[in-house]
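seq:
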Amino acid sequence: MRLIGILVIVFIAAPLVIVVPMSFSDARSLQFPPPGYWLGYYRAYFSDMNWLLPTWNSILIATATTVLTMALVVPATFALVRHRFAGKSFADLMMLMPLAVPHIVMAVGYYSFLGDLRLVHTHFGVVLAHTCLSVPIAFLVLSANLKGFDRNLERAAQSLGASPVQTFIHVTLPILRPGLLISALFAFIQSFDETVVAIFISGRNAETLPRKMFDSIRQEADPVIAVISTLLFLAVLVALVAPFAWRGLRSRLAESAPRSASPAGQ
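struct:
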């Protein structure tokens, strides 16, 4: 099993061995191994609005998608998990339907529907389409957390005089916070990485970074794509390592605090 685990890790990390060196290449197109190394394509990315604008669009659209997704998913999850009503099974099926339909089919449908509303090639249109794709993932994560929630904690708070709003803020929300954060993270990643729907809907004004990368690799294989891939990998790596580093720092500060306070107490 250890050997299988090592092979899986190598298979996952193999593209990085190719992409990261190519981001420092001085070749005019994607080439491995690189004939030489320089930082010119990093400067090209941070100085070219043709790349920076799609990056900003992706961040903006992904953030708006996350907010809208959570605003829809949180009440829907509470309703579907905690209450019984006619058509509940059908509602559960509809919440998960976008996971079963290919994105190309969804993209054609969104293009036709949003085109009638004149929302094609707009930021709001892309946000609506991405929200439909993010809702099932966020719903699955949050519903799994809510099903394991002990409602006796809420009953105990209400028996002590807490109102439903106070119970939700001080009891329910802190316990479900990890599930809410993970749901929001998956919604953000789903929107930020989505390409097929963005190709149909985003257009030039709301062009996202994945669409720009797709168009670039199809037309000229710009090495800036390797730069973006490397930066995204570093962002993910920092996001994974930061919580552990923060916990280690807090534990060290907690251990050093009593030692520094002991001479004063004596």
